[in-house]
Amino acid sequence: MQKRTGKNLRQPSAMTQKTRSHLAWNDFEVVLAIATAGSLSGASRALGVSHATVFRRLGDIEQRLGVSLFERSRTGYRPTLAGEELAETARIMDEAALAAERKVAGRDLEPRGEIWLTTTDSLLMGLLSPLFTQFQHKYPGIVLDVAVSNQLFNLTRREADVAIRPSNAPPENLIGRPLMAIGQAVYGHRSLNLSPGASIKALASQPWIGAGPRLQDSALDQWMDNNALKAACVYRVDTLVNILSAVSSGMGLGVLPCYLADEDPDIIQLTDPIPELEYGLWFLMHPDLRGVVRIHALMDFLTEMVRAQKQRLAGYCLTTSTTLP
């Protein structure tokens, strides 16, 4: 085999130049169709064009190449040596094109690859971790790379592919799906000997755990202000998991998502879920990812699994033992 030097690359052979300048893929298609069918009529059916069109295109190809590609007879068209070589090249090109198409399409049709996902520590701990385990068993070809943060990553800049976030007003530049409404209630440690169903006014004399400014929960901040609870705060922290930890230690009362607090046997729900503190759980992504199959596989899976936990996520009304509507 001739070594490919820089000189060879700069000065392609006359045959290479001729092939590149005189033949297009549809020319190879015509030659391959005639060689395969053995007739112009068979080639025209395979190509979906008229007999006359195939005849005209073959004549044009032979004229441009200056060589006869087929021997004509009453029994049909038989490729010459040049025609057979060209047809074989067309077969190789066709197979390569199909292989490339399958490879690329397979990436889109078969759920596999990596998903960069961001969510909060409370959602990961209280809801998503077991669901991610089930998802991985169902789709072993998909790798989840999870970043835990209370800050919304910039999906436009591809800091993450997907965000699973609590929000009542998701960013307008993102698309997604609402998964479920999340209820929140007041919780306290059993050792405080408080009775469920007490009014907020009655609980105001207790020490409270507040949300730090980095938690960015304006609704909770406003609710505590409206109920004159800020003065009762003895501790503030910037994650729900740490609020849970403080409540669980008996430090004071706190507002927590029901799905998170109900899993701790040492704390009890003291109020019904608070309507003004209900928030939506969203699956969010950049619009450019709407056609990515692995993203939709995760979205559809989480939609089904999260909505199946409606009662747990919405929280229980103490007075009726049912979930909020």
From TrEMBL:
InterPro entries: LysR-type_TF_proteobact-type, LysR_HTH_N, LysR_subst-bd, WH-like_DNA-bd_sf, WH_DNA-bd_sf. One of its GO terms (molecular function) is sequence-specific DNA binding. Keywords: DNA-binding, Transcription, Transcription regulation. One of its GO terms (biological process) is DNA-templated transcription. Gene3D superfamilies: Periplasmic binding protein-like II, Winged helix-like DNA-binding domain superfamily/Winged helix DNA-binding domain. Pfam families: HTH_1, LysR_substrate. CDD domains: PBP2_LTTR_substrate. The keyword Transcription applies. Residues 23-80 form the HTH lysR-type domain. Belongs to the LysR transcriptional regulatory family. This is LysR, substrate-binding. It comes from Vreelandella titanicae BH1.
